[in-house]
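Fill-in record for J domain-containing protein.
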Amino acid sequence: SIPIACILAPLVGLYAKNYPKIYRQRVSQQQWQNYTSNAPQFTYDFTTPFQQQYRSYQQQQQQQQYQSYGQQQQQSRQQQQRTKESSTKTKEEVPLDLYNLLAINRNATDKEIKRAYLLKAKEFHPDRNPGDKKAEEMFKKVNQAYAILSDKFKREQYDKYGYESVKYN
C-alpha cells in the first residue's frame, strides 16, 4: 500500500509554493471591499433613478388606460343611446300599410274590405284579448284601416299620398 505521506506531499508542496500568491489575492480583495464600502461613488445606487422613472411611466400608462376606458364607456353609452333613438325613429318612420294590415289586395272591393275588417276586428277585439295591450293597438289600427279604406275619397288619398295624408289619432 502507498503511504499517505506520498500522496499528500505534492499537494502540500503546491500549497506552500503558491501561498504568497493566494495571500496577496485575499489581501487585495479585502482592500478592494474596504475601498468600495467607504467610497461614495461605489455606495451610490444607480438603479434608483431608473426605478423611479419606471414607476412614473407605469403610473402614466395606468392613467391613460383609465382615461381610455372612461372614453370607451362614454362612447358605448352614446352609441347605445343613438341606437335606441334610431330604433324608435325607425319604428315611427315605417309607414303603416293598411292593405297588409287587413290582408287584402290593393284592388279589393268594398265587400272584401268589410269581410277582412270583420275577421281582423274579431281576432283583435279587447273582449277576446283582455289585458293585452298589443291586441288593443292592433284593434285600433284595424278600425282606422277600415275607416280609411271604406271611404272612397280617403282611399284615393291614401293610395296617392300614403298613410300620413289620411291618418287620425
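KEY FINDING: The chain is about 80% helix and 0% strand.
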